[in-house]
Amino acid sequence: MSPTTLEAMAASVPDGALLALPPDNSLPSVALAKALVRRGARGLRLLGVPVSGFATDLLIGAGCVAEVETSAVSLGEAGFAPRFSAAVKAGTITVRDATCPAIHTMLQAAEKGVPFMPLRGVIGSDILANRRDWRVVQNPFSDAPDRILLVPALHPDVAAIHAVMADAHGNVWVGRRRECATLAHASRRLLVTVERVVPGNLLEDERLAPGTISATYVDSFAVAERGAQPVALLDEYGFDASYVSAYARAAKTEEGFRAWLDANVFNAPARIAAE
């Protein structure tokens, strides 16, 4: 498998797609999110796996998003996600409330090829009133009253992650972030940006194989150096708190967000090239 370009990868994500993004502590592709903004993506339905962060707020602010299904949207220590909060208040996006266990369970059902899976811990919460696709049933293996929640399998159209490396075969290494493997198995397509391409076959290395997603599940990959920034990437680089804080301050207003977008998304490649 040969690498593609970031622009071609962004172009392959259709408007209206259900796009799954991991949280800021688990290999999100911020580079692809920025590329989607540049191409003018519209109507995306975002799935936070299981929470949403910087990339989600960026896409919402840029007008790329119609719906968000997640258990939370946050910038961590930088506070609330400002463009998400503004969109909710303005009613320009639909929010589908979920919980972290529910999202993981729905993806695991898809991974296993079953139509639903049972789940404890949600019954009695307000979320059920707004999730008509979740069903509470009697446990068929219990003679005593025992209600249990069934959640449907969830198959994202596209999942996007940023990994440290890929090999020439298209295998990608995600280290300990095995939840990314579940996401890959559950999704119809997996798009991966990577720091670099390495020689050999990652699946033939006993040390690296356990943390590797097989190319069988990878639709395409592209090299995007520092493609997770400003969030951290395993042991490669850390979280850029000052960058996120500056974004949070700018994005409190629509004008500030547009100025930030011009400087950091639309004009960033030209500025880097000039340097």
Provide a descriptive summary of the structure in words.
It is a single chain. With about 280 residues, the protein is α/β, with parallel strands linked by helices. The chain has two domains: about 5-100 and about 155-270, Glutaconate Coenzyme A-transferase (3-Layer(aba) Sandwich); about 100-150, no CATH class. Helix content is about 30%, strand content about 20%. The protein is built from nine helices and twelve strands. The strands form two sheets. Strands 1, 2, 3, 4, 8, 9, 10, 11 and 12 form a nine-stranded mixed β-sheet that branches. A three-stranded antiparallel β-sheet has the order 5-7-6, with helices on one face. β1 (about 20), α2 and β2 (about 45-50) form a beta-alpha-beta unit. It starts with 5 loop residues before the first helix and ends with a helix. The model is unreliable at about 270-275 (pLDDT under 50).
| Backbone structural class | alpha/beta
Q: Provide the residue-averaged pLDDT.
A: 95
Roughly what percent helix? Answer: 25-40%
Report the order of strands and helices. Answer: HEHEHEHEHEEEEEHEEEHHH
- The CATH homologous superfamily of the largest domain is called Glutaconate Coenzyme A-transferase
Give a short account of the largest sheet.
Answer: 9 strands, mixed
Strand content: 15-25%
CATH class of the largest domain: Alpha Beta
CATH architecture of the largest domain: 3-Layer(aba) Sandwich
What's the Cα radius of gyration? 19 Å
Shape category: globular
Number of domains: 2
Helix count equals 9
**CATH domain fold name of the largest domain:** Glutaconate Coenzyme A-transferase
- Total strand segments: 12
